């Protein structure tokens, strides 16, 4: 499963950054255009964190909406999938948001 590998690398990055400190909360940003299913990450999170310093940590997922700017007419618009064209009919657009996949916050117990 795609999300399993992603969740594993996220957890690994958190462990490397936080050392032995028990993690209480993790907040991830997963853009709606990233191709990653947030619910699957939630499901994998409990499995992957078992036995690590993240065991029992709560997981929060923020899903930024896709935004793009048209290179032809300059309009900015929201899009929920990559097939959406600009109002002017152009497919020549630059993605501004929605492809994020990052760790936004990690809270540890002190
Ligand atoms: Zn346009």
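Q: What amino acid sequence fits the structure above?
A:
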């Amino acid at each position: 499963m795609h999300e399993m590998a992603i969740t594993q690398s996220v957890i690994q990055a958190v462990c490397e950054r936080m050392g032995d400190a028990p993690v209480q909360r993790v907040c991830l940003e997963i853009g709606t255009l990233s191709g990653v299913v947030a619910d699957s990450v939630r499901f994998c999170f409990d499995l992957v964190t078992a036995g690590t310093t993240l065991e029992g940590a709560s997981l929060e997922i923020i899903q930024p909406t896709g935004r793009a700017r048209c290179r032809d007419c300059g309009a900015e618009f929201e899009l929920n999938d990559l097939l959406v064209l600009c109002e002017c009919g152009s497919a020549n657009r630059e993605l501004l948001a929605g492809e994020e996949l990052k760790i936004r916050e990690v809270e540890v117990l002190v």
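Q: And what stands out in the fold?
A: Helices lie at 2-18, 38-49.
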